[in-house]
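If your schedule permits, I should be very grateful for your opinion on a structural question. I would ask you to consider whether the tokens describe a fold that such a sequence might reasonably adopt. Thank you for your consideration; the sequence and its tokens are set out here.
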Amino acid sequence: MKMSESMIYDCGKDIAERLMQRVKATTGTESKGEAVIAFVGQQQELEMLASECWFTPMLVTVVENKLSKLSFVNIDSDRDLTQEDGRKIGSSLAMSLAVNLTAAGAVDEWILQYPALQRLDRENEWLRPMLVVIGTTLVGEVGWGLKLRTFIGAVSSMVDVVTDLYVTYMFWSEKKLGYFQALAICLSLSITLQMVFVMMAYGKLGTTRVVWECLPVLIGFKPAVDAYRIAKGAKQVAHTSVDPKFELVGMRCIEVFAEAIPGVIIQLMAIATTGEGK
């Protein structure tokens, strides 16, 4: 009988959770790699995959989660991989976890880079959920992934706000009041819609929480806050209407359609009319 998607996910999640618990329980006399090797030998599903010599070294390197440059494997067949190839493949996941917003996105990107992983993913449906849960655990345990996401989110958000404010100021200083008003309206509309979104999402938690959630919107720091929560693995808060991922997507959609796209059109029109006036 074919397993349902929920059963497949639960199978992969269970293997991942027991593996990470085994790794956490290591003592000073046992390394993470030794713990992974021992677990693979005790787990039927993993033991079958370990028949390919590169799989266990790959899984060991994944769990060690050491940040390194992306590694490329040059082979004629994805069945000709060596243990060293497995270590190279495993080391690449750490970088994917660092630059992607979610562990699921990082694992998707990582699997697409290597035909051998794509083959195992097709043949073993529980493998991807297992890797996603492992990735989520690693992101929550390691400081550099969280800090990098927070930093990138904060910088991109603040740069966007500063750029918009600067262009708006330039329109005002150059007496292009029509463009100034249009861009100011876009910025105001974006902030207003984001605050309405926050009020709808957090309204049941009281005025204090709503005000606290609106503050990052007013200073342009909301994307950084949302990225931090997702990287931390935060779950949907009780009595709220959205989870952190949906909140991030919703806020970004508002920014794009209420501010970014109209802003680009306004600036292009300003450039075009300036050229005509010369």
In short: The longest helix spans residues 244-277.
